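fold-stage: in
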Amino acid sequence: MSSTYVLGINAYHGDVSAALLKDGALVAAVEEERFRRIKHWAGFPSLSIQRCLEIAGIRGADVAHVAISRDPKANLLKKGMYALTKRPDLSAILDRVKNARKVRDLHTPLAAALGVSPAAGPSIHFVEHHPAHLASAFFVSPFDDASVCAIDGFGDFVSTSFAAGRGNRLEVLDKVYFPHSLGMLYTAVTQYLGFTGYGDEFKVMGLAPYGEPAHVAELSRLVRLTGDGMFELELEYFRHWNGGVEMEWDEGYPTLGRVYSPALETLLGPARQPSDPLTKRHEDIARSLQAVYEESAFHILNGLYERTGNPRLCLAGGCAMNSVANGKIRANTPFTDLYIQPAAGDNGTALGAAYYLWHQVLGQPRSFVMEHAYWGTAYEGVDVAAAIGARQDPEWHYQATDYAGEDAVCRATAELIADGNVVGWYQGRMEWAARALGNRSILADPRRVEMRDLINTKIKFREKFRPFAPSILEEALDDYFEDAAPDPFMQQVYPVRSARRAELPAITHVDGSGRLQTVSERTNPRYYRLIRAFAQLTGVPVVLNTSFNENEPIVDTPEQALDCFFRTRMDAIVIGNTIVQRHPVAAEAIADG
């Protein structure tokens, strides 16, 4: 009996992606940005589709079904009523019509990506954006039944959805429709604070702990919390609902015009320009935004629990990437168990569309749980020595050493980290979603207070306020973090125990917290053995982990990893069982003399 392949895609949106299932089991999940080398790539995920086919070892003709996480026909009545009553800017309507037409007419680019003729292509299924989010969370979770929630900016005219999941079925209980959106609330204030890039909300989350909640009263005016976990925005502070906000989802970097109105500047004072310095006022506004967001999110989740009574929660949507709020859910709601898969944002809707089709539409039973994020590309047989030998660099000499086996290379890498070196760690299959989780990571010693500033200024070339994450052996979690739950996907922030903060200064944020990743031998044995080797050397079962990139998407190929190593000030890179170290030419010349 032949296998059934289902391809899920997120297309003509930001963070386009593809995921491939074989008889209900995930085979591959990748994002277009990794191959285009432009963050948040929008448009059509043609390269992602091709990589999924390559990973599975199949042809496009073998794919039986394609599910796209958009449905232009969804919520038409709500859209029509809104257009009649609110009379939005004509350009905004035309932009959305143009985008919807691309979604409906995807047969040609899909056929090209699959390498088939449009007439011979697979069945195409349109899955509404929010059900795709819900499916991405519940259908790959370890729960047989759960409360399910998606919170984001917008998708198919919806910003928040409440659902109950049981077995292979999702029941949508309620929705919050355009123009009301917690995601839009966070984006508006993010732009006001001078962070205008697509997806810059995470920067504000990192800035918030430096401030005080001095502007909660003002920012609370932007949102009204109503019964049953619902809410409404105070629209005078926003322009996305009637101002014709510019959006660009064609091939390339996605853009979003200004979504806040002049009323926000009347309320808070002049907006910060991107080139302006960050002041205490900006830090306080960021902290206040996070506080207002958390109050609103917990209001939504408490309302969901009142509807379901189920203490298990699956969470998705762009707002589910707010790891600070996620770490407080169990303390501020009745939920006792939480699952957030690594691609909770729009990239994950490709995964959700595929699983929604497999379970909700085709009626297939559940058989898969996502326990790790290593669903991307891998490259074998890399000749690292040849790449090093071809490098002409008057300032540095590069030494490549091959190690016999995993234990040896992990021990040698742990020694480098313990000696204060910053190490690029390139192993196995690339991670799915935004977090580097031990296969495409830059690693350092969390005990060294100088590491944070050194990596930010000499390797990542980014804002100094940005924190770094700890990767910790799963069994050591309670020794280092307070009231924390295991999380292999780095989606939750918890307090570092006060007695351990001086021990881990490089990964402890200014408020005493850390966005942790628990590492188990079952799901990533090589990364686990590296951290265990570091613990045997130092007594600390934690390493500093940040993504292997430098103002670009996380590296995909070994060549990209080496290029990043060469152009930054990393001290070493580990590719498979080969370690390459950097040595100053001048120092070697002196030693030889």
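fold-stage: in (second)
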Amino acid sequence: MSRLQTIALLVIALLAALPTTAAAEGFRSVGDELATAEDTLFDFAADLRLRSELLFNFDLDRGITPSGDLFFPLPVADPTSQVLTHNDMRFRTDLTLFAPTGGIALKTRIDVLDNLVLGSTPKGPAVGTSTQLAPVDAFRVKRVWGEVLTPIGLLAAGRMGNDWGLGMLANGGNCADGDSGDAADRIAFLTPLFGHIWAVAYDFSATGKGTMRPNRSRAVDLEPTDDVTTLNFAFLKWDDEAATTRSRRADRMSFNYGAYVSYRWQQNDIRETADSTSLLRPEDVLRRDYGALASDLWVRLLLPKFRMELEAAYLWGSIDQVSLIPGVEMTKGITTNAYGLALETDIGDPDGAWLGGLDLGLASGDDAPGFGANPDKATRRAELGDMDGAQAYPPDDMTADNFVFHSDYRVDRILFHELIGTVTDAFYLRGHVRWHALELGPTTLTVSLATIASFAMEPNSAPGQEQPLGVELDPTVEITTTDGFGAALEYAVLFPLAGLDNVLLHYEAQPAHLLRARLSFAY
């Protein structure tokens, strides 16, 4: 059951996102970087991000759920104060090395002090510390892969980044507030044909239990049939930023699109209680028969003063044998049928003073209580009024049909991002407007506002057992410079509606507030 939540519902096609610059993602002019790299041996990009947050009343003053949980933690000493704070940083580096003869590139992404909480590693007693110690995991190698340009296409292999369309399902985590980002252990081949990019990729999605070889220097996969494997196919018509800019300035339309289909499977698995690989026996290998199909369509229309971008996805999955307990078999498997859609629009000159638009999104729901967004609670049976819990719970409930957006696809700042965790079992409308208030030399002052109205797809999923969840206002003031510096002050207020009330205790949910400051230094 937990595998369905973490694999079947979140299965994504992971089709290769091969960069055109060290920090870029997606099918963007694949191979151009290699073809024009004769005059340089490396390309380097880096950015430093620091964030400071103040969170007020994120539990909404609505009491605990039937399972005894709060929507969000409270201060320990004085829970009534409702104020929490957080400060963190991250230094991201992307490096590309080119072979002197051209045609080959080695790429890597290393995050330093990734989301490190400021002040979290003091030396000695906290009151007497004079320095901060380096954490054990100060350097996190996120991606390392190679690319080679052949006469018939581009071959890539290794652990590489992954992004598709709007990032609703597969997201590289490259936005200013991205906290995760997808990576895949993959072998991929891409080739241009008939004005499109065509791709096929083989992913090592999950390797089961292994053991060390006698020389203790390398491991070996102990049971090949418990591996999870994914095969992906995609095609894409893509105009890069330079091409779309030329089209816009010439009052011409730019129309791009793409689609992928992916199949993931697992034949067997190892019983849940098998902790030691040295004691595994044939009877510990149990039938699983897991399969999942993912498909995704992306469309983008660009006009001189209009942008429309759409991503729609459908996921099907099944696990014939849910039980991993020897001798205990389920007579019926778990299935998933889930769909999601995200639409973004911009109206106005992207280089002008004003820009606005209306976005919307939809993620299919499941009639089980809770939203099913948190994998840590995917095995817990939810009660009516809970925020999260298992969407499938054998033998009574054998379906899990809630679609889950990628957590780095940001719609708001409080409800979906912090309280629920992501968009799932819900739909939303998001109006937004942006104003370039001042341009002074290399510096631009921008003011923006987004308003989000959110609703549950299934009333039983919402804690208040009503569809209306809330209305959120997200204003921002931001300063950016052409040399890579940025500073932003962000605010958010969530006005909860009946779907977040506490029906059992007869408490109405109260507004929550967020204040965030962010500094960024990019190179």
